[in-house]
Amino acid sequence: MLNMMSDQPRALSEELRVVVVGGGASGVLLTARLLDASVAQPVHVSILEPASCIAAGVAYGTEDPEHLLNVRASGMSADPSSPNDLVDWMQARGLGGPDTFLPRREFRKYLTEHLQTAAKNAAAGAHVVVQESVVGVTPSSGFTQVRLSSGLVLAADFVILAIGNPAPGIPSALASLAGTPCWVPDPWLPGALDALQDCQRIVLVGTGLTMADVALSLSRRSNLANQLEILALSRNGLLPLSHLPIQPPRSMQVIDLENDSDDVLELESKIRYRIQDRVGAEYPDENWREVIDAIRPFANALWRRFDYEQQRLFLTRVLRDWDVHRHRMSPTTAQRLSELLDSSIVTTQTGQVLHASPSSSGGFDLLVELNGTEQELSVDAVVNCTGPGRSWLEPANPVVTDLMSQGLAQPDPHGLGLMTTADGHLLSTEGKAVDQIFVMGPPRRGTLFETTAIPELRSQALHIADQILFSKLPS
Description:
This protein is an alpha/beta fold. 30% of the residues lie in helices and 19% in strands. The chain has three domains: 16-67 and 103-167 and 390-470, 3-Layer(bba) Sandwich (FAD/NAD(P)-binding domain), CATH 3.50.50.60; 172-201 and 210-228 and 336-384, no CATH class; 257-326, no CATH class. The protein has helices at residues 25-36, 57-60, 85-92, 104-121, 209-221, 257-260, 264-277, 288-295, 299-305, 308-326, 331-342, 398-405, 454-470, and strands spanning 16-21, 43-48, 127-130, 134-140, 143-148, 153-156, 158-161, 183-184, 201-205, 229-234, 346-358, 364-370, 373-379, 381-384, 425-427, 433-439. The relative contact order is 0.16.
């Protein structure tokens, strides 16, 4: 049952009322952890999700069977107490083993069943999913008001912003294409690529993981077979690298927190020497992927120890190179993309769109810079593959806009996400923790640099659930 607003404060003997804003992976993982403890500590969790299904979001909402996880199954368990939970689920269904890169739509099913299992083992009626948007959140004495798009107002003891990745930012040169056919500002919206089946010349703006998925989808759906011409461009022209089909699970020491957190460029050089010249290598067959993966558990600790200037240097000098090594394609995706590149269906360039306008033929006229030279292109379609935008910039989630208007939220100094405490509480413009509101997942990127993948989300869910269930209620 929903906890609608009342003029009376909630009695302390009643169950905790928790509203989770967002039903993607973050919201599902947190709700499952709250339900795990709901028999010992009464709790009612309302997931507010405008989409028709949960556990989807940008990451897992795709129905394309070629869109695979970018991490092998052995690292994607939703259950922090059972590292093999996903692998066991897959093997029971004949979907592979620990080194499988599962289709993302299958992982969505796994997350959904994970929540269903937690709900089955919890107190009766401990959670509900409401297909509505949250437009505002206002803390007040004894409870927090949660305003829904329908006009309904809920009362909550705690609110968790689990809003996932924001919509892609639109490059300024492409803003003039708004509303035109065959311009795709967000390729992850349902049916976003449907209108491009008869388009021959397509430009993808961005060369990261989104580009790889979009290129695979377009090549398979196209009605033009080998006549298809896809140009992918970005300012650095770097493509994501690939995982190994099998990687040995062995320990490796790369980071020394005490000595590696003073100078980010020195740290970058140390890692390059380790990879290229094998300085400090621990195994004769050591692979660069193992080195990168050994850094990941220390990434957030390093980020918090870097001062503002060191963080800025990382973002401007190191980030893109880190991303192509850290966020890797599955071997299958890499192989498919390689085939498209070899056949010249897909080509990549270092460059950017300088100006874009609809053409009289129904396509687009682009002025682009490719390898330092300006040239004009006539294309049939343009797809924005630049990846997630900024959670506090338009088109921001309405609840973020509302919180910022109240002074209850602010962007972090680098504009990556929302300012939070180390424990995940939202920070107001006055720098005070908003005790009733937690932030989980991608919006915490300014405070926790690694905050988008399942291992990080799994850890955050457990930590926030513990704080909610075993701390005093807000006064």
